[in-house]
Amino acid sequence: RESTxxxxxxxxxxxxxxxxxxxxxxxxxxxxxxxxxxSAQSAKFITELLGPGxxxxxxxxxxxxxxxxxxxxxxxIDCSSARKxxxxxxxxxxxxxxxxxxxxxxxxxxxDASIFLDCPDGAKYxxxxxxxxxxxxxxxxxxxxxxxxxxxxxxxxxxxxQVIFQPSKADAPYIKQYLHVKEPLKFYFKDSFLxxxxxxxxxxxxxxxxxxxxxxxxxxxxxKASKQVISKKRDALYxxxxxKNPKLSETDAWRQTVYYLG
Length: 262
Fold this sequence. Notes:
- The chain is an alpha/beta fold.
- It contains ten helices and nine strands.
- A nine-stranded mixed beta sheet has the order 3-4-2-5-6-1-7-8-9, sandwiched between helices.
- Helix 3 links the parallel strand 3 and strand 4 (74-78).
- The model is unreliable at 217-225 (pLDDT under 50).
């Protein structure tokens, strides 16, 4: 299962939020429960698509009730309010994540590592979280900016796959030093990424679906303008799924709806 873990090194925070949201959405469509550590703002797109009753938001210091939250498709730990965070937050998150893990198919998505790396000993707790998830056979997606590699120089060793997405020339020293990428980087690609898996390097071109492209190009769309359109299309697809598969539970019907929306 470790082979499905991904360290994403994106150009900036907004790019990382968009890419991790996209990957979380694809896992939701495949029936995998998602625990996301990020912000309510960046999660709006997913919660709007999921509809009512399939997602929950928790505070970093809130107790995650395993029986209640781990069985929902999407759980968000909202770290957007810096005023509520302190030096104990990484340890509290580690304990909450361990309570969330269950026997179901699950993935941990950390869209912004600053919640850990900006706190004393935060990098240590982040390593423990990832190592613990690996031991449990859970998938992990972690997004970092190139500069954050300096705060956790050995973190990449916990990931079989490292993805470098839309780097700039200023990012090159960090990528070359901490990810040990020696070959020249191409800084002009917008629809490709450098995939590093062990000693193998590949430049992969991405073929986006319409929804993928919308998420990445607009970096979390203006939901005020699109909310009615999304809700109308989502409800119509849900009705169609239930009509064709009347024996499906409500949760499974919503999962198929999310999949078809993609």
